[in-house]
Amino acid sequence: xxxxxxxxxxxxxxxxxxxxxxxxxxxxxxxxxxxxxxxxxxxxxxxxxxxxxxxxxxxxxxxxxxxxxxxxxxxxxxxxxxxxxxxxxxxxxxxxxxxxxxxxxxxxxxxxxxxxxxxxxxxxxxxxxxxxxxxxxxxxxxxxxxxxxxxxxxxxxxxxxxxxxxxxxxxxxxxxxxxxxxxxxxxxxxxxxxxxxxxxxxxxxxxxxxxxxxxxxxxxxxxxx
Length: 225
What we know:
With about 220 residues, the chain is of the alpha+beta class. It has a single domain, classed as Dehydroquinate synthase-like, alpha domain (Up-down Bundle), CATH 1.20.1090. About 45% of the residues lie in helices and about 10% in strands.
């Protein structure tokens, strides 16, 4: 029974269980799908506004991969009821997982990591950030990196407008300046997807396809600083 918006649209769906260690986020984990997941908006009434906004980041994250109307719902002048967005996000996540419940190499489930390579490093570098806030910034930076690599992606402006609309952070350098770069890099290198001296990240393509990309550390730093 997930009690936060973030857990209702993300961690309670898909069967991944993990714990954090001193080395980084979700370093130890397993797949253990729940037999049932019960979701109600009653719990959401007890959340403060910042926690709700952090949960919205995970809804925004999954929307570009959805074959449905989740992006349109988020961008509408009148925001739908929260349970409508929760249902849309869950359906979108299940679409991404598809037949790839155990994240096979080359499968679609890796798309759920959009925003998380940079986001997890941000959480360790700037612990004042909530998970959803870090993922929000991670999505922008990862799209920026992809575009600088010449890759076609969903337009960065689409995600940026949604983050601004739901009052999520968009200023990366407010949390990571040149003095914090070494700490950020150390945290970034602990991501389990990475290869030697190469950062692996995922972005949505223009038609919602999963794009797995890589960038070396020098190129990464030259883009960010």
